[in-house]
Amino acid sequence: MATIYDVAKRAGVSVTTVSRVLNNRGYISQETRQKVYQTIEELNYQPNELARSLLSKQSNVIGLIIPNVSHPFFGEFTYAVEHYAYEQGCKLLLCNLQLDPVKEREYLKMMKRNQVNGIIMGSHTLDTEIYRNLNYPIVTVDRFIDDFPFVASDNEQGGRLAAELLIKKGCRKIVHICGNQSLDMLSNLRTKGFNNTAKSAGIETVVLETKMNVFDQEEYEYIISNMFAAHPDLDGVFATSDIIAAHVIKKCEQMGKDIPGQIKIVGYDDVSIASWICPGITTIKQPIEDMGRIAVNLIQKQMNLESICQKNILPVELVERETT
Fold first, then answer.
1. For the whole model, what pTM was predicted?
2. Which of 11, 131, 212, 268 could, after both became Cys, cross-link 39 (CB 3.0–4.6 A)?
3. 54 by DSSP, 3-state: which?
């Protein structure tokens, strides 16, 4: 079986150069890089990942903790993180938390065993002191936790844009369906932006919060049914996700309510389903791809002891479709 020394000898380079090519570290000319890769292929060399991680104290693996991979926003965010991590020579260790503290502890143990380069935290149930004591580079998504750098879209502006559009379209009683406000999430700012804008315009609003598990789609159906029963005169809905907006559309179709004639709907995220569904969902677009790229870059910068920006808030965009 070929060794790294065999690769270096045949390629006419040092062992250090081969190691840099394999780990995507330091400057290597394209000509040298191609020569090393060609030699690796010719010799069928298989790098020993475990040995490399033990020697370098790094595994070139980034841990990603998310609440629910089946949710379209987190599915698309995971795709972006994996794409940019791979470009940086890293692989992804995906932890689908589902708000389970037992799973979370097990995943943290697994990340320690694998000596991850850092953790992108899109969900947590355990005390944040546990994360602080890990001494890993950490980036949070849509949550502000002490001195950890975070990535988020401009949630408050998103709420304002949604309210402004619904008011402009003539809505006079708007229901806002949002996540549980007791959770310390930056996404709560969507509600703040919406409420402040509607209040300034003298528009009647109703805020309906989900329970602690904000991804329970059966609960969406329950909330929406009760919404129409309790507020038959509503003419606008601002949903905190495109998935909730899709459930509102489904209920309107069952009740024979015309969209956008009788009910106008604005979602949030601009995941793929927003443009696939009929009618297409007017929504607030989060720059999901950019959020994934920046999260990976923040991990890499912390690893390299580079200066970073703690607050990384990206602009949102109103995308108007058939529901308004």
1. 0.80
2. 11
3. helix
